[in-house]
Design brief:
Largest sheet: 6 strands, mixed
Structural class: alpha/beta
Bound molecules: manganese (II) ion
CATH topology: Purple Acid Phosphatase, chain A, domain 2
Low-confidence stretches: none
């Protein structure tokens, strides 16, 4: 079995009882470990992850989670970690702390005879997105893309990593908290097949003859399992702090969305 999960947002100041949250995530990984060949974490497992040039004491809070990943790997399970838009600032530290393979870019893999496109999903748009959205939505997307560019800029990263960790963290965790609270107060439900960026992105890939059987994303904190073409499906994973959803691919190549709480 191959498992997919995303968006735990560990360490979020907006999630009460952070220890219980981390413990539940570890329990979920233990459940998966019973029959897992690989586990793919598709981004935003941390609410804010930044590797500074100086030692950061705040990373200690993630020791149980990191220890769990090391233990899964020791038992022969392949653990993959994709960066999201909250935890892209890893420069080798996370790989070293956990032993997991870290992916910075989307990946297409073939497993059990199926092709799978894997990505957190932030920043993915169809080629003609500007023609598909009205002006105000275009502006919103452009704002997000500019911010994303800044987050990925080597100069900005160098400057942020130079900060004392306590300053950087005060800023980073609070920024992330604000976005979490905003989302909880004002969740953005599924926008529909003709508006949801990730669905449009996948449809555009199919149109370009880049066929995949499954497109699996996180990021949106919604559960979606949608057929977009014959033999092609988009699956959005939900999250691991409110919905506790994940997906699994069995050795016959069947992909199912599941809920850990049921
Ligand atoms: Mn995200």
């Amino acid at each position: 079995m191959i498992y997919f999960l995303s968006d735990a947002h560990l360490g979020s100041l907006a999630i009460q009882r952070g220890w219980a949250h981390q413990k539940k995530l570890i329990d979920m990984l233990e459940m998966m470990s019973k029959d897992a060949a690989s586990i793919y974490m598709l981004g935003d497992m941390f609410d804010f992850w930044m590797e500074y040039y100086r030692h950061d004491k705040a990373k200690r809070q993630y020791s149980p989670f990191c220890k769990e990943i090391r233990s899964l790997i020791k038992r022969g399970i392949h653990v993959h970690f994709f960066t999201g838009n909250h935890d892209l600032w890893t420069f080798g530290g996370l790989a070293q702390m956990t032993g997991a393979e870290v992916h910075y870019e989307p990946c297409t893999i073939i497993r059990y005879g199926k092709s799978l496109y894997l990505s957190h999903g932030d920043g993915l748009l169809p080629r003609n997105w500007q023609a598909l959205y009205p002006k105000p939505v275009q502006r919103k997307i452009k704002r997000f893309m500019r911010l994303r560019q800044l987050f990925h800029s080597p100069t900005a990263q160098f400057l942020f990593r130079s900060l004392p960790p306590s300053w950087g963290n005060a800023f980073g965790y609070n920024w992330a908290k604000k976005s979490r609270l905003k989302e909880i107060a004002n969740p953005c439900p599924y926008k529909g097949e003709d508006q949801e960026e990730l669905v449009l992105f996948a449809k555009d890939q199919e149109k370009q003859n880049n066929h995949r059987d499954y497109y699996i994303f996180g990021h949106r904190h919604i559960e979606l399992d949608l057929q977009i073409a014959s033999g092609s499906r988009v699956v959005i994973l939900g999250d691991c702090f409110q919905q506790w959803t994940y997906a699994k691919l069995d050795n016959k190549g069947r992909l199912t969305l599941c809920n850990y709480e049921q």
